[in-house]
Amino acid sequence: MRILTLSTLFPATSRPNFGIFVERQTSALTSVRDFAVTVINPIGIAPWPLSMFGDQARLGDLHNEQWGELDVYRPRFTAIPKIGGRINPDMIARAVLPLAKKLHAEIGFDLIDAEFFYPDGPAAMKLSVALGIPFTIKARGADIHHWGKQPGCAEQIVEAADKAAGLLAVSGALKADMVALGMDADKITVHYTGLDKSRFIPFDRATEKDKLGISGPLILSVGALIPRKGQDLLIAAMPDLPDATLMLAGQGESEGDLRALAERLGVANRVRFMGSVPHDDLPALFAAADVMALVSSSEGLANAWVEALACGTPIVASDVGGIRELVKTPEAGRIVERATNAIAAAIKDILANPPSREAAAASVSAFSWDENAHQLAAFFRAVTNNTISSS
Question: How many domains does the chain have?
Answer without folding.
Answer: 2
